[in-house]
Amino acid sequence: MKYNVCMVSDFFFPNQGGVESHIYHVSQCLINRGHKVIIVTHFYGNRRGVRYLKNGLKVYYLPFPTMYNQCVLPTILTTLPLLRNIFIREDIHIVHGHSAFSTMAHEAMFHARNMGLKTVFTDHSLFGFADASSILTNKLLKFSLADCHHAICVSHTSKENTVLRAAIKPETVSVIPNAVEASMFIPDPSQRDPDKITVVVVSRLVYRKGMDLLAGIIPEICRRHPDVQFIIGS
C-alpha cells in the first residue's frame, strides 16, 4: 500500500542541522519507494508559501512567526485551520512529527489524532530531567505522546531517555539509527601523513553537543601524544 505522509517540524531547510537533513533524506527515500510525501514547516525569511524540492518533494512554509530558537509560539488552535486544510487537501494518511522541541510537530500530531489520522514521532536528542527547560519539555512530551501511534528514536540510549521522559510503553518505541553513507567519508590515502594520527570531529559547536568536553580533552591528548592531530568541522 502506498501512503501519503506529512512530515512536520519547525526545523527544515534553509535552516541547517541534523533534524533538517534527516527529514529531507527520509522523505526522498519514501518518495523513491512510491509514497507521497509533503513537508510542513514555518516560513524562513522570504521563503514562504509552497516550494518544490528534488523528486517533487512539496514543502509548505506556513506564515507562523517564530518565538524562540526557530520554534513558533505554542497556541494549539491557531495552527488548526491551515494544518487541517493541508491534511485534507493532500489526503494525508500519516503525520510524522520530528523533534521534542518543535511546537509545530506536537500541534500537528494533536490535530491529526483529532482527525483520525495515524501519527508517528521521531525524537532526535537526549534531554535531562532537572532543569526548567527539560521539566517543561517533558510535560509537553507526556501530553503529546499519550496517544501517539508510534515513536522512533535514533539510538537505544535515546529510546530509554524518551520512554522515561514521556512515560510511554517501551514496546511503542522503535530504534532506527541515523544512516551514514560510508562511501562519502573515505579519505585519500595519498594525502595521509604517516607520522600523524588524525581525529575528525564533525558537529555543531554548541554546549549540548559536548563541545566543552572536547575543548578540555584536546590539549591533554595532544600533550600526551604529539603525533595526534584534530580536524573539526562544523
TrEMBL record:
Sequence ranges assigned to domain PIGA GPI anchor biosynthesis in this UniProt record: 42-131
EC number: 2.4.1.198
InterPro entries (alphabetical): PIGA_GPI_anchor_biosynthesis
Pathway in which the depicted protein is active: Glycolipid biosynthesis; glycosylphosphatidylinositol-anchor biosynthesis
Gene Ontology cellular component annotations, sorted alphabetically: glycosylphosphatidylinositol-N-acetylglucosaminyltransferase (GPI-GnT) complex
Coiled coil: none
Leading EC class: transferase
Keyword annotations from UniProtKB, A to Z: Glycosyltransferase, GPI-anchor biosynthesis, Transferase
Pfam family, one: PIGA
GO biological process: GPI anchor biosynthetic process
SUPFAM superfamilies: UDP-Glycosyltransferase/glycogen phosphorylase
One term of GO molecular function: phosphatidylinositol N-acetylglucosaminyltransferase activity
PANTHER family in the record: N-ACETYLGLUCOSAMINYL-PHOSPHATIDYLINOSITOL BIOSYNTHETIC PROTEIN, PHOSPHATIDYLINOSITOL N-ACETYLGLUCOSAMINYLTRANSFERASE SUBUNIT A
Protein name according to UniProt: phosphatidylinositol N-acetylglucosaminyltransferase
